[in-house]
Amino acid sequence: MAPVRALAWRYQYTARRVLPVLSHHHYDFAECRFEPRYDDRWESATLIPRLVTFDCAQTLVEIPPDWSLGKLVVDAATQIGLKPPSGADKLYMKLYAGRLPEFFEINQTGDMVRAETFWSELGLAWLHAIGESDACAEALRDAADELLFGPKSEVFKLYDDVLPCLDYLDSMGIQAAVISNWDYSLHRVLKMFGIYERFLVVKASLEEGVEKPDPRLFEIALEEAGLHASETFHVGDSHEDDFVGAKAASLRVALIDRMAEESNPPVLKSLLDLPEAFTWID
Which of 70, 166, 235, 272 sits 20 to 30 Å CA-CA off 265? Predict the structure, then answer.
């Protein structure tokens, strides 16, 4: 974006989205943050939160709707010259499902050595099942890892509105966190986009042993952040997991739907409209 266009966009965005919010706030120089200015219209409203929590999949990071772990492994096998038979993706998922209790335990213990062993053994079992040699195991693992987490990942893509949104939160002194129904790889996915350090707290459901919409996952994150639900705003894409779950934890919440025509409570068309969502009163 050319410098002049960028400045024009920033001015228009600030005038349209940010100034209406700031008009109901004053800056507390002692605390170095904005505080709500209460009057009859805004008596109970804390418009600007101290923390915004985000779901990850389809909120921060786009994932193809037809993606599956089995399909990824088949693509990786094809890439290294193997010819997996029809149904090989379903076979992988069946083998994976049979070891899910072990995978859940690995997530909760955080044993990454055991995690490496888990994926290696699963890959070997699948290769044996489709009649391939153990000699392919390391190449298969490397190819799958590159497809999943490499710079040209075919699975994960950061939405264009994420970085500007995080920049806005930084400029306002608002903390950010991630609360997602995910496994331990959530941390790696955020790191691959260079945004991991921008979050005060990152909580993956499989690591905590509880998943949204259970309010306990939100409560665990808030306890670590040292903040109250009344100081927090959540954004996610799932009505059940995010909207119902956040409400159960007493958080204000907006749903992100980038296919919507415009932002209207409780739906955000873009994370760039988050300042506007702060003015929505339940």
Answer: 166
**Torsion sign (Cα): 263, 267, 270, 275:** positive
172 and 265 assigned to the same domain: yes
- Do 208 and 255 fall into the same domain? yes
Clarify whether residues 77 and 118 are in a common domain.
yes
Distances (CA, A) of 98 to 6, 108, 125, 265: 52, 18, 12, 42
**Cα separation of 237 and 231, whole Å?**
21
**Does residue 172 contact residue 274 with C-beta atoms inside 8 Å?**
no
The verdict on 173 and 130 lying in the same domain is no
What are the backbone angles phi and psi of residue 82, rounded to the nearest 5°? -85, 165
56 and 172 part of one domain: yes
pLDDT digits (tens, 9 = 90+) for 84-95: 999 999 999 999
Asked whether 53 and 215 are in contact (CB, 8 A), the reply is no
Q: Are residues 259 and 136 in the same domain?
A: no
Choose among 27, 23, 28, 29: nearest CA to 42.
Answer: 23
Mean pLDDT of 234-250: 98
* Nearest residue to 203 via CA among 171, 170, 236: 236
Strands 157-158 and 175-180: unpaired
How does pLDDT run across 16-71, given as a tens digit for each residue?
444 444 444 444 545 555 454 433 333 334 489 999 999 999 999 999 999 999 99
DSSP 147-209: HHHSTT-SS-EE-TTHHHHHHHHHHHT-EEEEEES--TTHHHHHHHTT-GGG-SEEEEHHHHT
Residues 176 and 259 in one domain: yes
The first and second tokens of residue 193, run together, are: 């986009």
Domain identity same for 86 and 212? no
State which residues form the domain around 190: 47-63+157-277
- Average pLDDT on 211-223 reads 98
